[in-house]
Amino acid sequence: MERLIVAHTPLADDRLLFSKLTGSEQLSGLYCFEVELLSASNDIDIKSLLGQAMTVALNTHKETPRYLNGCVTQITLVGRETTGERYYVWLAVLRPALWYLTQNRDFRIWQEKSVPEIITELLAEHHIPFDNQLSWRYRRWNYCVQYQESDFDFISRLMEHEGIYYYFHHQLGSEVFVLADAPEAHGSLPGYEKLAYHPCEEQVAEAITRWSVTDSITPALYSHDDYDYRQPDARLLEVRQNPHSFAAGKAEVFDWPGGFTDREHGEFYARVRQQEFAARHQQISGSASALGIGAGYRFNFTQAPRPVDEGDYLTISASYKLVANAYASGSDQVAEQRINFVVVPAAVNWRPARTTRWPKTHGPQTAVVVGPRGETLWTDQYGRVKLKFRWDRHGRDDETASCWVRVSSYRAGWKYGAVQVPRIGEEVVVDFINGDPDRPIITGGVYNQQNMPPWDLPSAATRMGFMSRSSGGTMDNASFLYLDDAPGRESFAMHAERDMTISVENNLNLQVDSNSRYLIKGNRSTEVLADDDLTIDGNRHIFTKGGYSEQVVGPVSQVYQQGLLTEISSAGKKEIIHGEVSVSIEGGWQQNVSGGDIAISSPNNIHLESDSNIAINAPSLTFTTRGEACTLSGVNIGINGLDIKVNGMTAGTTLSSNEVKGVASSITGFNMSKSVVSLQTDTIKYSGSGVKLDYSSQISIFSMLHLYM
C-alpha cells in the first residue's frame, strides 16, 4: 500500500519509516520539524544522520508531491513501541541550513555594501542556495558592524530594519532560502491555487475547516529622526500615517535614532514601519486539512463564511501535525493531517517586526589607529582617522580597516576649538554613540608598553603638559609645553622643534619678578610700527662683537642726566651729518686729542664767539687766507714774538691800542696803514691777500675747535 507520507533519509528508505511530524514555519523565521521515525532494529548509526538532509514527502492527490526538507540537527532514540511490531522509535529534529548561522558568534565589519549584498556574501560562505525576489533598491551602508552576535542574528536585524523578509521553498533533498519584500514575490503551491471553506472536514479531504478574522488597533502614526554631522542643519524627521489605524491621535511611535543619514532613506524606512503596523491590523487564523498551505505561499479562498472574506491571502505562518497510519495491526495510531495557519490579505505589503535585538556596546574600548603603509598620519577634512579594533580578525591593518572615525575634543566650534589628530600606531579609547557599534567615536588616548609617556614616571609625576612629535621624526624631534609642580622646582617649559609664532591682536603684558635671559643663536629682527618705550631702573650693558648700525628717519633726542662717557678703542670715529649741527653746553667743554691732527673745514664762514677770552696755546700758529684780506680788529690787540713780520700789498692797522713786540718785527706791504689802539704779539705769522680779525675786546689768538655731537 502506497503511503501518503514518506521520509527520505540518507539511509535506505525501508530502514526508517515515517510515523509523525509536528512543527511550524513562518515568514522571517527558522522552521523546526520534529519527525518521529520507526525502525525494526536499533543498530542505526545516529551520528551518520547528523547534519544530513532529510525530506518528508507529502504525496497529495496533485501532480507533484509537497516536500518538507531540513537538516538533521538532533536525533534521539526514544524507545520501543509496546504494541504491534514493537518498532524502535526515533525522534529527528529538522531545521534549515540557515540554522547553522545561529551557532556561531563573531565580530565583523562591512563597508560600502547594501544589506542584500551582505546577505549574499554570508550565504555564499555557508554554501546556502537562495532566491533573490527583492524588488526595492537598497542603500549602501557606509559602515556596518556584526558585533558579538551570530551570523543569523546579524542578518535578521538588518533585514528587519530594511523591511526584507524570507521564507523557504522546500525541495527533495534541499530547501531554497527566498528573499522577499513585496506581494509579487509569492506564488501558490502547485495544485493549491484555490482552497474552499468546509467546516466539516470529513466531507472534503483537503479544505479549510476553520476561519477566524481578527482586526486589531495598531499605531496611527510613526515618526523617526536622526542626525548627520556632515550636514548638521539638515531636517531628517519623517512622519508616516497608518491608514488602517483606529487610534488616530492616541497612538504614535517615535524612534531616535532612526538609523539613517539621508532624507530619502528616512522616508523609505518610515514607509516600511507603517507597512509593518498595517500588516498587523487584520490577520486571519484558521485550520485546514489541505496540505497546500505553507508559509510564504498564497491561495485564493472560496466559499468563505462571509462573502467579504473571499479573495487572495498570503500565509505568514503554518503549524503542522501529520500522522501516518500504523504500520502493524493492533496499533491505535490513525492517520491525521492538520495545518493551523495565519494569513493576511495578499495585497498587504507584509513587513517583519523588529524583534531581533540590536547589539549594544557596554562601555568604551581601545583600538589602534591605522593607515596606509609608510604614512604616520592619515586623516580627512574632519580630522577623522581609521581604526583597527581588537576584536576585528577579518580586517587588514591599513586604511580599509574601518570607516572614518571622529575624534572628540574638549571644545569644537566654527573654526575654533582644539585639534589633536591621533597618529598611526597610537592606542585610542573608543566609545559608541547611543551604544551603537556602527557609530564609533574616539574619546581619548592611552599609553602602552610600546608607546610610553614622554617623560619618565613616576619620577616626573609632578609634571603635566603636552608633547608633540615631528611627523616621521625620532624621540628627539618634538615640541612641548609642560608645567612642573615639584615643590621648590615649580616651572613652566615650552619648546618649539622648529619655528614658533606668537600673535597678539591687542596688548601683550609680561611680568618677570626675577631675571630674564634670552639666547638667540641666529639673527634677531624687531619691527615696531608705533612708539617703543624702554625704562630701566638699573644699569644697561650692550656688548656687540660685530658692527653696530642705527638708522633714524625722524629726529633724535637723547638726555643723559649723569654724564656720558664714550670710548672708542680703535678704528676711530666718523660722523656724516647732512644738515646743521647745534650744540648747547651749559657747563665747560674740554677735548683732548692725543694723536693726529685736528682739521675743521667749511665752504662757508667759520665763526667763534666768546663773552670772555679765547686762548690758543701752540708752539706755532699760522693763518693762511686764500681771499683778499686778513683783518684783526679790537679795542686792544697785542702781538708779542721774537720775530714778527707782516708782509702784503697793503698793510693797515686800525686799533685803539697797537703794540708789536719782538726781537725782529717788520711790516711790509705796498700800502700800509696803521691805526692802532693796542697791538701786541710774541710771535705771529700771517700771509695772504687778505685776513680779517674783528673783536670787540682784546684778542690774543684764534682757537681751532672740534665740535662734538
UniProtKB/TrEMBL annotation:
Domain Gp5/Type VI secretion system Vgr protein OB-fold: start-end pairs: 380-447
Q: Where is the Gp5/Type VI secretion system Vgr C-terminal trimerisation domain?
A: 464-562
User: So where does this one cross the membrane?
Assistant: none
The record's keywords, sorted A to Z, are: Secreted
Q: Where does the protein end up?
A: Secreted
One Pfam match, by short name? Phage_base_V
CC terms in the record's Gene Ontology section: extracellular region
- Keyword match Secreted: yes
- Show the PANTHER family listed in the entry: PROTEIN RHSA-RELATED, PTHR32305
Query: Can you tell me which family this protein belongs to?
Result: Belongs to the VgrG protein family.
Provide the protein name. Answer: Uncharacterized protein
Per the UniProt entry, what species is this protein from, by scientific name? Winslowiella iniecta
